Amino acid sequence: MSFMNRFSAFLKPHKTVPITPWRANSRWDLSLSRVAILFFGLAIFGLGDALVVQSNLGNAPWTVFAQGLSLKTGLSLGWATFVTGCFVLLIWIPLRERPGFGTLSNIVIISAAIEFGVSVFPLQETLFGGLASALIGIALVGLGSALYITCGLGPGPRDGAMTGLHQRTGVRVGRVRMGIEVTVLIVGALLGGQIGLGTALFALLIGQSVAISFGIVARLTSK
């Protein structure tokens, strides 16, 4: 098999969430290695999101909302992301969803990583630089998602709200997710959050990025 064929096979998307050696038995089943992988995945996710922000081409829907909130309140983007995550977590109460260690870590670490990333990564001023920043960011968000999801320590606040609404309403999960994303995108844009080519790229590519990352994790951990 040629190098290109092997490389293509390595990047083949995975159709399901792989079972990894570090997967927890419950949302509070903690170990040093599992928590380290969780934290690393969440940090990578936040740094990837920051790269999309610094692409200057438009943000992911939830970051559009957080940026709009930041502009209206004077909070930094990281703190606005933290406040947004806490508010979404409150929605879990009537939905009877239960957070896990990964849920709470998601709010704190991703917010901190975004705060750090936007202060370190340069704001791109050219289309080429912006595209490179956005695409690398989307790849990192996908990898970070794969790592923290496979820990099995609980979904992020937004994912939990999505599945909770799906279970309570019976509406298909894809439609629930689309409704949530479109709503926060519109509200965020009205608040002044940036939308553009980067937003479209994120919407189009993030699913494939996560699926490819699941595949990489599955192949690297298979016996």
UniProtKB/TrEMBL annotation:
<keyword id="KW-0472">Membrane</keyword>
<feature type="transmembrane region" description="Helical">
    <location>
        <begin position="74"/>
        <end position="93"/>
    </location>
</feature>
<keyword id="KW-0812">Transmembrane</keyword>
<feature type="transmembrane region" description="Helical">
    <location>
        <begin position="201"/>
        <end position="220"/>
    </location>
</feature>
<feature type="transmembrane region" description="Helical">
    <location>
        <begin position="176"/>
        <end position="195"/>
    </location>
</feature>
<protein>
    <submittedName>
        <fullName>YczE-like protein</fullName>
    </submittedName>
</protein>
<feature type="transmembrane region" description="Helical">
    <location>
        <begin position="100"/>
        <end position="121"/>
    </location>
</feature>
<feature type="transmembrane region" description="Helical">
    <location>
        <begin position="127"/>
        <end position="155"/>
    </location>
</feature>
<keyword id="KW-1133">Transmembrane helix</keyword>
<dbReference type="InterPro" id="IPR038750">
    <property type="entry name" value="YczE/YyaS-like"/>
</dbReference>
<dbReference type="Pfam" id="PF19700">
    <property type="entry name" value="DUF6198"/>
</dbReference>
